[in-house]
């Protein structure tokens, strides 16, 4: 079965600093990868997705992620964060061809942007 | 606007009572899902449905039940058999399994 590891449960940064949220998944021949954001007491919103093609994926709110097959990683980055980016971020993976096709979520990374 | 609605936003029940959480989508999606979210544990899949009149258990189905009589609706019943029902419940839908899911705003259930 697929598994997802978000290496940092909390990431504090200052406003306008760059940030990277790390995500690693268990090895598979092929994967679909997703990043979601959750603001307090709300549902999850899709930030970006990788299905195929270019390994650098751009999403909403200035976020981007890079798919690295050899390192089985899909780290999320933003060059300059805002206070409003404070939220919890979830990485998710699905297997596009195998029997385990459900989305598997990581446990989340809480990003706190301080002034 | 297309989207997923969950009602109510907050729900309070006494222990021993069954409670049903509503989930409706107008995205014309075939697949729908229910997740439970507890602090520090991420999302755990309760049930999912790929098509009307069919559904499968997820990772933590014990104490829960669902129905899928219409494409737009996927209600979740939290039964009295669920030992620790207090949690944040999220409904989601997708065009098909494997692809990105779209989430509703969630229902926070408190059982005392």
What does this structure look like?
The complex is a heterodimer of chains A (115) and B (112). With 115 residues, chain A is mainly β. Chain A has strands at residues 4-5, 10-14, 19-21, 24-25, 32-38, 44-50, 56-58, 64-68, 73-78, 87-94, 104-105, 109-114. In chain A, the strands form three sheets. In chain A, strands 2, 5, 6, 10, 11 and 12 form a six-stranded mixed beta sheet that branches. A four-stranded antiparallel beta sheet of chain A has the order 3-9-8-7, with no helix packed on it. Chain A starts with a strand and ends with a strand. The mean pLDDT of chain A is 92. Chain B contains no helices and eleven strands. Chain B has strands at residues 4-7, 10-13, 19-25, 31-37, 43-51, 54-57, 64-66, 76-78, 87-94, 102-103, 107-111. Chain B is globular and about 35 Å long. The mean pLDDT of chain B is 93. Chains A and B meet through strand 5 and strand 6 of A and strand 5, strand 9 and strand 10 of B.
Low-confidence spans of chain A: none
Q: What sequence of helices (H) and strands (E) makes up the elements of chain A?
A: EEEEEEEEEEEE
Question: If interface size is counted as residues with C-beta under 8 Å from the partner's C-beta, which chains form the largest one?
Answer: A-B, 22 and 23 residues
Evaluate the radius of gyration of chain A.
Answer: 14 Å
Sum up the structure in keywords.
heterodimer; A: 115 residues; mainly beta; six-stranded mixed β-sheet; four-stranded antiparallel β-sheet; B: 112 residues; seven-stranded mixed β-sheet; 11 strands
